[in-house]
Design a protein that fits this description.
Layout (H helix, E strand, L loop, with lengths): L8 E5 L5 E2 L2 E2 L3 H11 L3 E5 L6 H10 L9 E3 H12 L4 E5 L2 H9 L3 E2 L6 E4 L7 H12 L3 E4 L5 E2 L6 E2 L1 H12 L4 E2 L6 H10 L6 E5 L2 H10 L3 E5 L6 H4 L8 E3 L16
Parallel strand pairs: 1-4, 1-13, 4-5, 6-7, 6-8, 8-9, 9-12, 13-14, 14-15
Antiparallel strand pairs: 2-3, 10-11
């Protein structure tokens, strides 16, 4: 694994690392500026497939963080890139929002309910029994089953919401077919991001707040892994896993370059 001083490119999770409930985490804006000043390629990653990079860029800007849309990589974009590589010009029946439908359109896919090559399940707040039933029948008829990310629940002000993984589990139960999941913890999410910015695992670091997605995927992709304690993980959570990140830090503020301290001889 590369040491931190050997890292030339960065991948970082968004929620819990750069922002928390739409508030910037102290040090996040300065770290992004530091990477820009140093000319280091970077991408902000998220498993959320609801929003387009433009939407997320606007959301981050309203939180006080400047991240252009071309520096954002979502599980929807990773899914579209994977499917374009697998079957250029293919077709899909999609359950999801603009994030995944836009990504698939831009990848050259046709959206259809008639014998699609793939059934793609993404994040949405508008799951319908009719759409889920259609997905079950299409998969039963031979369409390949793809899921953007495995998260079983998502956050809301009122409490947890059923998310992509929960809906996928329902479809699996009804069809007996397991989906291929593109987003974290599949290391493909990181590999596709590295391809996007021309990075290599030998000199790339990743920053995340979850052991079960960010860190394990980073380890499997051969990256220098850094866990921050500003998100979902704490010391008690870390001890549950048989693997460890390369570094555990309090927050991204710990990654800011420090001015050298002059000592008198």
């Amino acid at each position: 694994m590369p040491r931190r001083d050997e890292i030339e490119c960065w991948l970082t999770d968004m929620d819990g690392v750069l922002v928390h409930e739409n508030h910037p985490i102290p040090g996040a804006a300065e770290l992004l500026q530091q990477w820009r000043d140093e000319g280091k390629p970077y991408l902000v990653l998220t498993n959320n497939s609801i929003f387009t990079p433009r939407d997320l860029s606007a959301r981050l800007r309203s939180s006080g963080l400047e991240v252009p849309e071309e520096f954002i990589w979502t599980s929807a974009l990773a899914t579209a890139a994977f499917l374009k590589d697998q079957m250029p010009g293919g077709s899909a029946f999609v359950i999801g929002e603009a994030g995944i439908t836009t990504a698939l359109h831009e990848a050259g896919f046709i959206m259809t309910e008639t014998a699609p090559d793939y059934v793609v399940i993404g994040e949405t707040r508008n799951y319908s029994f009719e759409a889920i039933t259609k997905a079950v029948r299409l998969i039963g008829a031979g369409s390949r089953f793809i899921v953007t990310n495995p998260d079983a629940t998502g956050p809301s002000a009122e409490g947890p919401l059923p998310a992509t993984g929960a809906i996928a589990a329902m479809i699996t139960k009804a069809t007996g077919k397991e989906p291929y999941v593109v987003g974290k913890p599949n290391p493909m999410m990181f590999r596709s991001a590295m391809n996007r910015i021309g990075a290599h695992s030998e000199n790339t670091g990743m920053i995340g707040d979850r052991m079960d997605t960010d860190v394990v995927a980073g380890i499997e992709a051969g990256l220098h892994t850094i866990l921050v304690l500003t998100g979902i993980s704490d010391q008690a959570e870390i001890t549950k896993y048989p693997f460890r990140p390369d570094e555990i830090i309090d927050s991204v503020a710990d990654l800011l370059a420090r001015e050298p301290v002059e000592t008198e001889l």
